[in-house]
Every structure is written in structure tokens, then in C-alpha cells.
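Give me C-alpha cells for this 603-residue protein.
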Amino acid sequence: MSVVDPTAPLSDHPRRMNAGGLQVRGLRVETRAGVAVVDGVDLDVPAGTVLGLVGESGSGKTTVGTALLGGTRRGLRIAGGSVLLEGIDLTTLSEVELRGWRGSRVSYVPQDPTTALDPAMRVGKQVREVLDCHDYGSGPDARAQRVTEAFGEVGLPTDGEFALRYPHQLSGGQQQRVCIAIAFATWPALVVLDEPTTGLDVTTQSLVLDTVRKLTQQHGCAALYISHDLAVVSTISDEVAVLYAGSVVERAPTEQLVHRPRHPYTSRLVAAVPDLAGRRALTGIPGGAPSPGARPPGCRFEPRCTLAVDECARGLPPLVPVADDHLARCIRSADVSPAEVRDRDPEVGRAADPLLRVEGLSARYGKVSVLHGLSLDVPRGTCVALLGESGSGKTTLARTIAGLHRDAEGTLSLAGERLPFGSHERTRQTRAAIAYVFQNPYSSLNPRRTVGDSVGRPLRVLRGVRGAELDRRVGEMLDRVYLSSHYAQRYPDQLSGGERQRVAVARALISEPTLLVCDEITSALDVSVQANLVGLIEEFRHELDLTLLFVTHDIALVRNVAQQVAVLQAGAIVENAPTERLFTDPQHAYTRELLETTPNLVS
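Here you go.
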């Protein structure tokens, strides 16, 4: 195999095609104390193809992705194995040598473009910077031309005006495509994409996925696409590797893995993915993955596995062939099938008087109008979903209903009583009747307050409960969201994302509201955690006769949780219908477009 010198000027080998691809063998990443975080990982990514790497948070996905760039996060080190690219083992290179590879032959697309892009630098200059660092082309003119080409390749404007914009002047999708342009600008041999569509609406997500797929083939590079969303991975990947507790438990061509999983964990992941067609129930995975220092000696999924037998606990099974091009780490692989996925019994929305009524609502931010004469009824005891892409006005509507946005006009009423727009103008009883769960559990919980203090605060402020009675009810509520009263003494930084969101749900429900507003509460969660959280909220809806307003851009999830759907576009409701009718017979072109661009996992 010919070896490319990454330190040579790119003008010596423009538009290099990458024949070798990536080979990873026995990769081990451990803590300074010798505890393995990732162990024995083997991957193959031929040039021009995409390998999807899926698994729950904490499985080691990002650790693997970072190791392919020759690095680790603080406190970890690459302790064994090889990462072969163009005949070179990247794990053997010095830090100085790695600098010649990063950005030139290996590149990275991050999850959050807002933190990856320099807010004080124009986007054209940020693409140009990587070309300058690696001495691209014959000079300034060639680099300027490559910047224009890179923007065109990712579907961004190629005029000079766009290149002069700053990141804050772009949408989230445009920012992410700038990051992709930076990653592909030098025609790399390997691109690592770390959940680049998390939080994006389906339309923008579709554009980003199409861009990645096209550039991978056009540049002839190997791509590793990291995600917790198997539906997204299935639309872009040629092959999928499933990671659990630091080891690959299954690897197969995408269609084969989805339709015929041979590891129980993969099968349960499939069951946790929302089904756009509405043919199966949404089911989570009980329990959680073991931490690196507490992994069992046998199969690491054994404590959560419904197929486990005594032999599973005796030793870690090897990753062995179970079919053509299909590997699985399970002694009962022949007994695994998608049959574990239960048929779904869709709930029909019941006829009920509206608990919440919105009439002629308009809202603005300063001079910018966001909502335009919008009207909506939310029947008592049902779940109504607000669906639409970013910027459609979903969150503004939700915040206005909750009293968090006052620059509005029109009429809001709850149980027949007029609601003032500002929460401070509402009675204590009304404030207790409407609860809000925010999108980001990392920022919605006060890091300086214990879980018990955060959960109990609404009960103390709105209901006047104090002392032992407050502690008792906080403990009961934590038990009901499948945590425990012991969590009351913890702080948010001691919890996982799913645990934090369950704390946020407990805080919202402890004051016994009649209306619960959920604002994109699952957008950053693993699909298994998402399924568990949705199931939990559904339990409370039936048990407490809650009414839900569920804000989301996840169309497949809507079909599993809502009885009615209101579709927003540019601040107006363009379609409002019972869920099953909207999905089977959409009337508006925008609704049809959303349905057509949504990734779906068919099993």
C-alpha cells in the first residue's frame, strides 16, 4: 500500500483518493488507574463507506471516535491496539506527528456547532484556516477557490457575502454544514462525525445526512458516524457496529442488523426507536449500563437481558460470526429476534372539553413577529403535540402558555378562566396548575441545589408544604419516577442525562398540575432513555388525569405519545388533526414533507 505523507503540501496530491480505508484492531482505552473504558474494539471502514457506531450514553462511542484521531479526553490513555490509516498506525505517532494528520488526513465533525465555531471569526475564514494550516494548494487563490468549493459541496451559498457572516448569523443547520465543510476541505482519508444531527429538526437533519453521504462517496474517504439514534444511522450507514459497556456486541450490514438482530441489546435498541408507521409499541430497556469500574465478569448486558442463563455470567463471550458478514457477542444469538417488539395499540383521542384554549394568539420578540393569530384547543386528559421544524414558533407558544413570555396578544384560558400572559400576574393556584419541563436538564436544574431541594421547591412555594411532610412527599415523588429517596441528597452533576430529566419531571409533577408542558424533553436523550421517559409520563397522564402539551420536532415520537397533532410552520398552525388521521392522510404539503424526510427504522 502506498503511504501518503500528511506533512507534504496538499498541492502535491490534490483530491487524493483513499484506497485503504480504516482498520482498527484490539483498541483499548483505559483510565490512569488501568480501568478499561473501551476494550478489544475491532472496526473496518472501507474508503467511500460509512460505518455507524451506536449505543447508549456511556457505552464508549465518543471515546472510540476520539481515539481514531489519536487522542483521548483528560484522564484516559490509549493502552493497546492499532488504528491503521493509509498504512500508518496512528497510535504510534507523536503529538507533533499527529498535528500533521489532524485536519489534513483525519478530521472531526462535532455534535454542537455553536461551541465548535469561533463566534468572533467569519465562517469563510474558519474554513480557510484549516487550508492555511496544512499548506493547501499553490497559494492564496487556490485556497480561496477551495473555500468556495467547500461551501458549494455542503449546499451553502458560494457568494462572498455568505463567507463574511459570523456563526450567530446562521441557522443551526447552516452552522453544522460549515463544520462539515471544514472537515472535508482538505480531502481527508477519515472523518469522525460525533452525533452531528442531535437537536436538529428533521428537515435540517435530512440535509446534513445527505451532505455527509454525498461527500463521503465523492471524496472516497472512510466515515465513522457516531449516534444513539439507530433510525438516523440506518439511513446513512453501510454497516453498523453496536457498542455496549466498552465492547462491540454486534456488527453487520445495516439492513441485516435492523431486520435480524442477533444480540439482545440490539433487539431492545430497535424496540426503543419510535416507529413512524405506528406498527409497534415504544419500549425502553430497564436498568442502565454498568460503569467502567463495575462491569460484570461475564456478558456485560446479562443483568438487563431477558434471555440470560447461568453461563452468561461466567465469562465475556467472544465476537463471532453468526451469519455472512454478521458478528455477535452472545451465546444465545440464535434465540434473538425482533419478535420482542410488541404490537402497538394506538390510543384514540377522546371527546372532551378543552382544558386549555388559545384564541388569536400573536407573539413577538421586540419588532420580530413569531406567532400570528394562532388558535388551539387542548382537550382535557389528552396529549396534544406541537410539531414543526426549528423556528416554527413551538417553544414560543409553549412559553407563552406557561407565562414565561409576555410580549403577546390574544386570549389564553385554562378551565374556562382567562390567563394573564405573565406568570407573576397569575394566582398561585394557576401557577401550580401549569408545570413546565424544559429541553435541557443540564441547564434547567440549579447545580448548587440538591435534587431534594429542586424537586421540593414548587411544593414549598406554591402549596406551602414544609418540614417532614415536604421531605416525605419529595421522597415519594422520586420513587415514582424510578429513582429513589436517596437521590434527594445528590447534586445534578452526580446524575446522568436521563436521571436529570426524571428529576425535572418529578419537580414539575410534585405540585399536582393539571397541564404539563414538555418542551423537547427527549431531544438529547438515548432512544432507550427516551422510551422509558415517555412511558413514565404516559403513566402519570393516565394516573393523574394529566393534560399534556408535547413540543417536539421528532415526528416518529409524536405518533407514539399524542392523540392530536398541531403542525406549526412560520408561526401559524397549518394542520391540526387526530394523530392517526394526520399520519395516514396528511392534508398540508408541509406535513407531507416532514413525514417524507423523517428517518424511520422498519423492522
